[in-house]
Queue: 2 jobs
Job 1
Amino acid sequence: MKRYRHILSFLLCLAPFTASAQHPTAHWARASSAAELAEGEAVAADISGNVYVTGEFNDSIIAFGNIVLYDSLDFQFFSKYNSAPFLVKYSSTGSVLWANSFSTLSTYDPRCSDVATDQKGYVYWALSTSIGYQLEKAVVLKYDSLGILLWQIETRTDSSFYCSAPKLALDKSGNIYMTGYFGGDSMVLGSHVLRNCVPGA
């Protein structure tokens, strides 16, 4: 009989507290569901109190309330080693507003790494994905408050080398700061080229 690892990604909203002797009060808690594996990686909140959770699931589907996401990679060879990142938005009261996944047949085993919001309510999602053996790229996607994709940027590295999933930060002007690491001689992001001080590393 086949056994499934069933791990629920969950979100717990706590009331703020100041005194060290006080116990926080839970406002609400939510969990996703997948038949095999799902886990959360990062969480962020916007100025309106909406909450964004990103993570990964290793199954053909995952459900957040009435919203169901599908993993197109689940039907590929070696699918059990693939995962699909998800991004879900909750209201301040815990209602699921929308959810998106990142899963394409041209990529292998994408991994999420971070999520951030700006002062205007836009959402930025960071992840990495492989397009071949040990050939990885970092990806940053921007969504509006309704979950509509506005733009997507990607790094490019030398063939046969890697690029980590980035971490994000935003300032009050909406500028985006991204950090990570890469192997190989160089990494390209738009018109900018970063050189490795140890070529071939």
Job 2
Amino acid sequence: MNTRPAWGLLAIGALIVIALLVSPFWLDPLSDYLEEEEVIRPFPDAFYTDLSAEEQDMYLELYADKPQQAQAFVEARLEEPVMIDELPPDYSELLLTGTFSGLGAIYAVHGNVFVYRLADGGTAVRLEEFDTVNGPGLQLLFSREPAPTTEEELGQTALNMEEVPRWGLRGNRGNQNYVVEGVPAFNVDNYDGGSLVLYSTEYHTVFGFATLQRPSQ
């Protein structure tokens, strides 16, 4: 019995199978399983090149607990700084002063605070040599607490817009003026020993505070 044709067919079949296995059409999907799984990077490339190892660790720690908040904070942090340089307002009296303290590397805040009685009888807050990291929904507001670090420590009065003025932060660097308007119940004397707070209303997070006191005579 002649088996050569059968062996020939088997050889041809084997060559076809080998050709299919080494074909790019098969290798591409197989490579997904063969290649080592890539590490997921939750933040933009600039995060890994522009921030210190300490800052990266703090954001990654926040990401493990609150990923959406961490990504929003990093996105704001990587935005271009906004510089504002305004002259002091026309004032008649310096009422309160303070110096900002930040709450860590990812909530860094620096600068001086001056609260003035204006020549027209109004009240204004001035920030000088101010510098902070950007953050989502940053606002300035008063608290009767001297050193609040959480929303709870701010006190209910601080979040009452009928009694306490608040301003959206216009720039994260420079010298800036904020005038008290539309809050007739506000009494600046209540904040001697209190603070001016930089606060993220979007994520209910205190970035820093300046304890206020009357200027030394």
